[in-house]
Amino acid sequence: MKNKNFSLIEVLLATVILSAGAVLYSKISAQSANMVYEGESQWGRAHLKSLACEYYLLWGADAPEPVELLPEDYSASCELIDEHELLEQSEDQTEGRWTLKKYWVQLYYKDEVIDETYVSKFLPVELVQ
């Protein structure tokens, strides 16, 4: 029987192919880990923003800051804005008893705005005057 050994070129070529595969695998793995981290961060911000929106919609725009709902270094604020475009139509339909307002809710991390949203809501006229 003939005993065939691998040549140095064949061993080097196999090593290069395995190395390239390992590099590609590590690159794809790092990218996927980064995408998971970014997705989780976006979900977290959206969750905190929805908590702040629900809080202000329930307690009003002038409610105190929801420190018990948000983690440390996070804060939220809310401002009530007139809905000028739809205000005339809504006053005709509600006979002046309700007014359309827009809640502007901002989410802060270390006093820097990281997210914001607008929510329109009909409010009784006596609550906003």
TrEMBL record:
The chain crosses the membrane at residues 6-25. Keywords: Membrane, Transmembrane, Transmembrane helix. It comes from Lentisphaera araneosa HTCC2155. This is Prepilin-type N-terminal cleavage/methylation domain-containing protein.
